[in-house]
Amino acid sequence: MLNKDKKKVLNAILKDKSIDWLRDEVIRLCTALPDGLELVTQDAARTFGRTSLLADTLLTESWERAADAIRAADDYYRGNDDDVYDDGYYYLDLAKKQIKGASQKTRQQLICLSIELDAQNSAGFTDELWDFCCALCKDEQDWRSLIRELESHPDEYNRRRILEILRKIKDDDSFEALQLKNLNGAHDYLRLVQFYRSKRKEKLALEYARRGMQSGEGRVDDLAHYLLVSYAKTHATADLEWVMKICEERESYCFQAADALFSYFDLDHDYAKAKKYLLKKADHARGHEVVGLYEQVKGFLTSEDFKEEERSLLTSVRVKDFDAYLEVLIQRKDYREALDAIKLQAHKSIHWYSRKDYSEAADKLARYYPEEVIEYYFSFAIWLIEKGAGRHRKNYESAVEYLQRAKRIYLKVLKDPLRWVNKLEEIRAHYQGKRAFIEVSRMLGN
Fold it and tell me: What pLDDT is stored for residue 89 in this prediction?
């Protein structure tokens, strides 16, 4: 912080009305005092108002300090203090606050210097420098100046920035021409589609969406969604199925496309095609998408069709999401098959780091097979206790959680508290040398 003497000197300078003299003194003081720049900014604004000369001086000084910090940040991994990062963020933020009142000449000079600094060595400040450049732009001339600087450093990233600016300043002809010259990724086609839609040129939007589906690199999710919605509105059945075909070829957006076609044909009362795309939806489901699909298929298909598809559907669910598979078996009341599946998976988990827990499903089976579920929980608890030494002490806490589940079955299902007490004593006696486990297990009681 500034001491009282330095503040007096600074205030005396600020009371002087000679702007030319003040300009040099401001720079000298800002260089001499670490926190003088912000104080000068605040007091000068109150004393003089924001003259262009003063605003240019303060803005330029703040930017130069930020630039020095950004250049120094490149040496961080060679032993420099990471405080330079904080300085870079601080002075860029301060410079943003000082843009008001600065001349256009100074703003455009700093745009040029900022883009050059980012191209040479931004040290992780790319986003901050870009935000600063955008803040410097107050009219179309400033934005055009920024475009010229970006064009002097051509790359994909700067091309996207130029396109954003052209949309912002409503230069539609330049935007369209530049985007048409650069149609590589699916996102390029999507940007053009969005532009044509904003201009109510739906025919062109559909044309380039189709081209993007076929030729655009990367994911085509948004293009596919747009086409599916558009074709559904016009009942273009062949085009809808074409989108599904392309999605499958590109292995992108398949689940969502199949769901859209199922809904479309279901509303159109075309059972055969609705069934086809519902089964495709099930085939393309992944992760959380699998949950609930079994019941949806069962609810939609005729009983005869469902019998034909059920086994292959169950196999598919099992491969994609074992938890969902267990839930389906429990819903079907195939409790024995569910428990056998859990035990088989536990047996397959031969590596300690890959063993998976299915306690949620096991809890639901406890009332039907209490002894076997208890055995499952004990196997998990013992496994955790035996590998719980050293830095793995937390495993003891997890082991106790499984023992607690077993205890609940002994007390609430089997109603045999004595067997629980005897089993717990047996485990404690066997692992009496693991004092940390004995201590943690006290929460189980006796």
Answer: 87
